[in-house]
Specification:
Order of helices and strands: HHHEEHEHEEHEEEEHHHEEEEE
Number of strands: 14
Number of helices: 9
CATH superfamily of the largest domain: Bira Bifunctional Protein, Domain 2
Mean pLDDT: 90
Strand order of the largest sheet: 3-4-5-9-8-7-6
Helix content: 25-40%
Largest sheet: 7 strands, mixed
Length: 324
């Protein structure tokens, strides 16, 4: 999608965000385009998953109001250079190559090709969840970055705790969970070297208010942050507030990680480890290994208690599953 078309859709969405009726003529005049062109823009927004009502002599409105991300407020309230896109293929992809910058954050209202770990699709409906990527340059040796995804998970979990949510857990190496359901995930990508500096892209996806119909492609149990607010009788926070809380904690946690490594986070991880003392199975390409979760070590490796002792498992082409 062209940047010009993206901007036009953004303007229309900003007008409709209040959930009130807006006439096609009024929207057309605001954008200096024809009413026929506005109709086409509405079709494109519907194709992105929005529920738009069209009523003769009243105009268009969203089935429910939306709270859109505000890049000016993000830049004001965090110490990052934040860019908000309406649509993109993936926020991680947007930060690669020449677009990379330390402490740059790219977030989007919609991803057409969002990715999770091991190339899985990350379902990314419009203006429902949070999808962001953070550029982070470091001279830490690559072998010390094994615990990075765990630290990012801890930062997000702590941000949600500071918003009064209780019960967030983490599943090695990159899942944010609540009562056995996935709330969010993390994707870390590296380039460069320790001599010239490693370019790290930290991608995070967090389910906030996703409609079940949009999540039909998800093959595991999931839940929204808004569901948790409701279950715990808490006032809901906007996506903007949640993102600011997460970025604030990420800044603090990354500073500590760069200074002291993962060892200083071991106790905090053990407290949130969903698999601690639970029966688990490690799924590998050639064989599966069953055992009991025994935490993680100072490098971020998962510790599996087997009949032959403790076996460290390193992130890569493996999956961790709880078992009955």
């Amino acid at each position: 999608m062209s940047e010009h078309k993206d901007n036009q859709l953004q303007q229309v969405l900003s007008l409709l965000a209040d959930g009130e009726f807006h006439s096609g003529q009024g929207i057309a005049e605001h954008l200096s385009v024809s009413r026929a062109y506005i109709w086409k823009l509405m079709q494109q927004l519907q194709e992105l998953g929005l529920d738009i009502e069209s009523v003769t002599r009243k105009g268009y409105r969203l089935a429910k109001p939306l709270s859109l991300l505000d890049h000016e407020a993000l830049n004001r309230d965090t110490n990052f250079d934040c860019q908000v896109l309406l649509t993109t293929d993936s926020t991680n992809q947007q930060l690669k190559g020449q677009n990379f910058a330390h402490h740059k954050v790219v977030t989007a209202e919609y991803q057409s090709a969002g990715r999770g770990r091991r190339g899985r699709q990350w379902v990314s409906p419009l203006a429902s969840n949070l999808y962001w990527s953070l550029g982070w340059q470091t001279h830490m040796p690559v072998q010390q970055l094994g615990g990075l995804s765990l630290v990012v998970g801890l930062a997000v979990a702590n941000a949600l705790t500071k918003l009064d949510i209780q019960g967030i857990e983490l599943k090695w190496p990159n899942d944010i969970r609540y009562h056995g359901k996935k709330v969010g995930g993390i994707l870390i990508e590296l380039s460069g070297d320790a001599v010239g500096g490693l370019q790290v892209i930290i991608g995070v996806g967090l389910n906030i208010d996703m409609h079940p119909q949009a999540a039909q492609a998800i093959e595991q149990q999931w839940c929204n942050v808004n569901d948790i607010f409701e279950q715990q009788a808490l006032p809901k926070k906007s996506r903007q507030q949640i993102l600011i809380a997460c970025l604030t904690e990420l800044e603090n946690y990354l500073q500590t990680f760069e200074a002291y490594g993962f060892a200083g986070f071991l106790d905090e991880w053990q407290q949130k480890d969903e698999c601690m003392d639970k029966k688990v199975v490690i799924l590998q390409a050639d064989k599966d290994i069953k055992g009991i979760g025994a935490g993680v070590d100072a490098t971020g490796a998962f510790l599996l208690q087997t009949g032959k002792g403790i076996k460290p498992i390193y992130a890569g082409e493996v999956s961790l599953r709880l078992r009955e």
